[in-house]
Amino acid sequence: MKACVWKGPHNVRMEEVPEPILVKDTDAILKVRTAAICGTDLHAYHGQVPGFESGIVLGHEFMGIVEQVGSKVSAIHAGDRVIASDITACGSCWYCRQGLHWNCASRSLFGYGPAFGESLAGGQSEYVRIPYADTVLIPVPSDLSDDKVLFLGDILSTGFLCASNGGVKPGDVVAVIGSGPVGVLTQMSAFIQGAAKVFAIDRLPERLAVAERFGSVPINFEKNDPRAIIESATKGRGADVALEAVGGKEPLDSALRVVRPHGTVSIVGVHLEDNYPFSAIDGFVRELTMRFGVGDPMRLASQILPLIENEVIQPERIISHRITLNDVPEGYRLFNDRQAFKILVEVS
Ligand SMILES: [Zn+2]
Ligand SMILES: [Zn+2]
Q: Minimum-distance ligand to the CA of 84?
């Protein structure tokens, strides 16, 4: 079968690889219909992910039709149309029973090598082996198109969790750090929770234009000081909630800078720095709440699917490009060069 394979930094190629087979009786095999390229894939593309090796099949945003299930899979059947959660989990340990799948000892991330668990081939391919299929696969209603539900498997759950962990309330002024695909879905989620005003903070004009289209107030931090603008809109207080959707030191600095005293900073960006300089006295004096989270499609699907069905959220509106599986290497180039906002891959 065809799959997009990582060969080294900035070098991904379509290759023929063996079709996956059931390894455990809790596995399923998924025939992929639709996939996407995620910002998190770019960390791998650049070769920044620990343990990444040539030959890894990329991709963790994908959905399709179940081709085959193992003997212990009971909730999912061949022929079901499903989204794969980007992260996997066993479904039966203490954390899984609380719905905290990211902390499951069997957790992994598709197409990401051994960085976060077992190395699993990803979904920018024709077929994928899905571990713990009863837990990891999310059935979707037949009346919802792939475009509408695909992002539930990753970036929509991430953005939704960011706003939800931030405790955004009706009337709040919210600052969202980042206006990429996750940032914009975070902004949409903040509006769903009742935000009166959402400031979108980024430095790329084309991304800020997307944010503005969905109702956010754009701030280009290379041209204007986000803190000054947000303070002038809040009688000097700052944002009630700051949502960090980028990852890395500067975005987190920015979130802490714009949030008001007794505000909340909710963080879903991928953070790899292990010595972040946090001022405890500032946190104490301002009574700040900081909350980290990883979007968990398995836990959030029951909350998000009705919002999609009722068109309260229309995540498909962020799709800028549609390509076929053969064009995924070119898709990486476009996405990495910021020439594409969000790329959908029509696989089969
Ligand atoms: Zn992702
Ligand atoms: Zn578990």
A: 1
DSSP 292-345: E----HHHHHHHHHHHHHTTS--GGGG--EEEEGGGHHHHHHHHHTT--S-EEE
Distances (CA, A) of 328 to 3, 149, 276: 9, 20, 35
Q: 3-class secondary structure for 213-254?
A: HCCCEEEECCCCCHHHHHHHHCCCCCEEEEEECCCCHHHHHH
Query: Do residues 132 and 89 touch, judged by C-beta distance below 8 A?
Result: yes
Verdict on whether the full-model pTM lies above 0.70: yes
Domains and their CATH numbers in the chain: 2-154+296-346 (3.90.180.10), 156-292 (3.40.50.720)
Distance 332 CA to ligand 2 centre (A): 32
Quick check: helix, strand or coil at residue 12? strand
Q: What is the pLDDT of residues 313-339, one digit of tens each?
A: 999 999 999 999 999 999 999 999 999
| 136 C-alpha to ligand 2 centroid (Å) | 11
Q: Distance between CA atoms of 84 and 30, rounded to whole angstroms?
A: 9
User: Mean pLDDT of all residues in the chain?
Assistant: 97
